[in-house]
Amino acid sequence: MLQFSVEIPTTKTVEEDDEKFTVYVIKIRGLTKTIYAERRFREFEDLHKLIPVNTIFPKKVLQNRNPRVIEHRRLMLENFLKDLLSQHPISDELFDFLNLEQLQTDTITDVGDVKLEHAPVISIKDYVFNRSSNKKDYLPDSILDVFKNEIIVMIKCSLLIELGNGKRVS
């Protein structure tokens, strides 16, 4: 499951094909990587039509380049995105809108011929020792069994090495 936060910290004016418009710069912060997406107001409107939420959505106005209007929209669009993200699961449309596939590519680690595809583990302590809590984010038993078995193998190997060196193991 992807973990990330979203904000719209800024906007910028773009001129393209004799047309001037505002884009909203969306900052998507994952566990180890931050990505940005730039979207026009009409793209937000399209997303709102696909995934309506109870958030007040900004109206289209004639003076859309007025700095006050842009700032007001920026705040409302940020709230709109946060409301969409509070819905589970995240829709495919929102996934594409935010380019979240870029966050997934950050989780692949190359180790020789083996590719590990997982999110980085920040701390396993919370997962292993807080299983009695009502949290649903603990590691599945199959993963815990692998860790347990690996630890047992490491202990046995270190005991065999010490015995092979003539040391007495107590």
Automatic annotation (TrEMBL):
Chief location category: membrane
UniProt key word Signal: no
Signal peptide limits: none
Keyword Transport (UniProt): yes
Subcellular location, record wording: Cytoplasmic vesicle membrane
A GO CC term assigned to this protein in UniProt: cytoplasmic vesicle membrane
GO MF annotations in UniProt: phosphatidylinositol phosphate binding
PX domain ranges (all copies): 2-107
Topology in membrane: Peripheral membrane protein
Pfam families: PX (PF00787)
GO biological process, one term: protein transport
Origin superkingdom: Eukaryota
Record InterPro entries: PX_dom, PX_dom_sf, Sorting_nexin_PX-domain
Keywords recorded for this protein, A-Z: Cytoplasmic vesicle, Lipid-binding, Membrane, Protein transport, Transport
Family: Belongs to the sorting nexin family.
Name assigned to this protein: PX domain-containing protein
Record organism: Didymodactylos carnosus
Organism lineage: Eukaryota, Metazoa, Spiralia, Gnathifera, Rotifera
